[in-house]
Amino acid sequence: MVHFGKTLTLASLFLFLMLISVGGASGKILYNDTIEQGDGFQINDYVIDVAEVFPGQDSVIIQVYEGDTKDPKYDKLISVGGSYKFKIEGEDVEITAISVHSGVVPRAKLAITITDDDFINSKTLGVVNGGHSEAELSSTPVLAISKSVDKSNINVGDIIRVTVTVENTGDGDAHDVIFSDPNQERFILIDDILGSPGRIDVSTSDAVKKIYVYDLKATEAGTFSLNPTTAIFTNSVGDSFPQASSNRPAVTVSGSSLMKNATLDVTMEVDRYTIDRNKDLQGTVRIKNTGNAPASAVTVGIIVPEGLEYVSGDSGIEEISGVPTIYMESFGVQQEKEIIFKLKAAEEGTYTLSADSSYLFSNGVDSEMQEVSSSTVTKSVYVTKGKYDHLFEQPIYVYLIPLLLIGVIASWVYHRHKQYKF
To answer: Which phi and psi (to 5°) does residue 331 adopt?
Structure first.
């Protein structure tokens, strides 16, 4: 009986080696290890559950779930040495039962091979504790951004209210959503009612969300299409999606063209968006007055997030309450200015810089000065582990032992040198 058991084990091992040989010729081995009963292995939106293990019968029940369905797409009993093949997105996936083991939690050793793994998302690949019910599936959020105005026919000096909403019509939540709403030429921002939404999530279960509500005053006659509001975002597993964009409502403005407007375009960028920790990066703020009136009391605050540190900047930058700030008494029509500053990447992480600007101008009609404020945000800056960071992660004895050895050797050489000298 013992001899028969050894023969069966050797036969199973021989069969496994043959399977590996065949798998190596026709595809790739995704997994070759032990999975506990109740756990699973995920490939994109498919999860292979080890539903039940029978050590006494040398067999295992495998259930394959697609997406978030409650019932398995495939449900198979596989004996040790046996296999089961099915398709995922047109590619053959083969599950082979290598062995089964008893214990507090029974487990099965499986080999999972696939003909071609080019379509596999590495973010949704691997063992899932708890099986399909605990799997984090990739999804496709779809952001429908709508921009509307309360009046589309107005006179110079009139005010319109702009409302921007968003709805997620996709099949998964949108994460880390960053909206951008450019300044509108020929209009002045009078009241920013909601302010910047910052980085938010937009769930498929959410009602239509208001993102921006603000009032604009028309300063020039003509028909204008408002700039679109855009958004960048990811899904639940961190996949990035193309930028979403809103519609562009048109506004017709009639009346006097004597009203003047100072329009400052403020942009900010850095020289690189992926950087090692403790390295420096250079930022640039560009300001241009594209309006027909000079601006005064121009202030641009550079908001540096924790994890990045402000190091230095051009003479036009002064730190006020810890915020690097650009201040100019006046800024003429068509004037342009570029200000350089330097930052240090202090901590690993993902960061965005923002520039909050404000200025005053006279429109030539109203007696009071007009005040305008806006904000611009850079693309994400990724700070990664520094070149020598791993050295500081080692236990202190890794450094002390070599130093002690060097000290002992140096002492011995010095002692021998003195003996030789006398």
So the answer is: -150, 110
